[in-house]
C-alpha cells in the first residue's frame, strides 16, 4: 500500500509540475481533481494479468498529453478516459465534477455498447474516428500509445504468451491498431504525435520483432 501511494504521488507530481510553475491555480486544480477522482474510481483494479494498479495507465496517458503540450482540460480527460468504461462513473457525475468539455472528451474515448462482441465494438470504434475532433483524437492516441508500450514491455519480459491475456490474440490486435492508425491519419497535421502511435504499432507487430 505504501509503495502504491508513493507511485500515485510521484506520477501526480510529474503531471502537475508544469502547472505548479504557473499562477493559474484553477488549471492545476482541474488536473489535481481529475487525478484524485480517477485514483478513487480505479481503486482495486489492475492491468491485465498483472499486479500493476490500473491507475498507472490513466496517469501515463495524462503524462503523455502533458508532454505533447496539451492544456489542462485535455490532460484531465486523459486521466479520466476509462472512468465511464471501467468504473461506475456516470455522464452526470463527470458533467457535474468536470464540465461538458471534459465529459465530451471522455465520451469520445469510451466504447458505448459493451453488449456487442469484441469485433463489433472495435469496428464501431474505428468507424467513429473520422467524426472526432482533433482534441478527442489526442486523448485516444495517448491511450493507445501507452497500451502499446505496456504490451511491448510485457512482451519483452514474458514472450508471446502475453497475448493470451487479451480477449483476442496478436493477429486481431494488429488489425485493430492498424485500423485505428489508418482511420486517424487525416488528423496528423492537427495531432502530430499520431506518428508516435504509428511507430509504436510498427515496432510491436513487426514480422522481424525479436529476431
UniProtKB/TrEMBL annotation:
| Domain HD/PDEase: residue ranges | 50-157
**What Gene3D superfamilies does the database record attribute to this sequence?**
Hypothetical protein af1432 (1.10.3210.10)
Q: Does the keyword Membrane apply?
A: no
The record, for InterPro entries, names: HD/PDEase_dom (IPR003607), MESH1 (IPR052194)
Report if keyword Protease is assigned: no
UniProt entry keywords in alphabetical sequence: Hydrolase
User: GO molecular-function annotation terms?
Assistant: guanosine-3',5'-bis(diphosphate) 3'-diphosphatase activity
Q: Which SUPFAM superfamilies does the UniProt record give?
A: HD-domain/PDEase-like (SSF109604)
The organism's place on the tree of life at top rank: Bacteria
Q: Which PANTHER family match?
A: GUANOSINE-3',5'-BIS(DIPHOSPHATE) 3'-PYROPHOSPHOHYDROLASE MESH1
Question: Which named protein is this?
Answer: Metal dependent phosphohydrolase
Which species expresses this protein natively?
A: Lederbergia lenta
Amino acid at each position: 500500500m505504501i509503495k502504491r501511494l508513493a507511485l500515485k504521488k510521484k506520477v501526480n507530481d510529474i503531471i502537475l509540475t508544469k502547472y505548479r510553475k504557473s499562477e493559474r491555480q484553477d488549471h492545476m486544480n482541474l488536473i489535481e481533481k481529475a487525478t484524485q477522482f480517477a485514483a478513487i474510481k480505479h481503486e482495486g483494479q489492475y492491468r491485465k494479468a498483472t499486479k500493476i494498479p490500473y491507475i498507472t495507465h490513466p496517469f501515463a496517458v495524462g503524462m503523455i498529453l502533458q508532454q505533447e503540450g496539451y492544456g489542462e482540460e485535455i490532460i484531465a480527460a486523459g486521466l479520466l478516459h476509462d472512468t465511464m468504461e471501467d468504473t461506475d462513473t456516470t455522464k452526470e457525475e463527470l458533467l457535474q465534477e468536470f464540465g461538458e468539455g471534459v465529459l465530451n472528451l471522455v465520451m469520445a474515448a469510451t466504447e458505448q455498447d459493451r453488449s456487442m462482441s469484441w469485433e463489433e465494438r472495435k469496428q464501431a470504434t474505428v468507424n467513429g474516428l473520422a467524426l472526432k475532433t482533433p482534441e478527442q483524437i489526442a486523448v485516444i492516441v495517448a491511450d493507445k500509445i501507452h497500451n502499446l508500450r505496456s504490451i511491448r514491455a510485457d512482451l519483452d519480459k514474458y514472450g508471446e504468451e502475453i497475448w493470451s491475456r487479451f480477449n483476442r490474440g496478436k493477429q486481431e490486435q494488429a488489425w485493430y491498431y492498424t485500423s485505428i492508425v489508418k482511420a486517424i491519419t487525416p488528423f496528423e497535421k492537427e495531432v502530430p504525435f499520431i506518428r508516435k502511435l504509428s511507430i509504436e504499432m510498427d515496432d510491436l507487430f513487426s514480422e522481424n520483432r525479436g529476431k
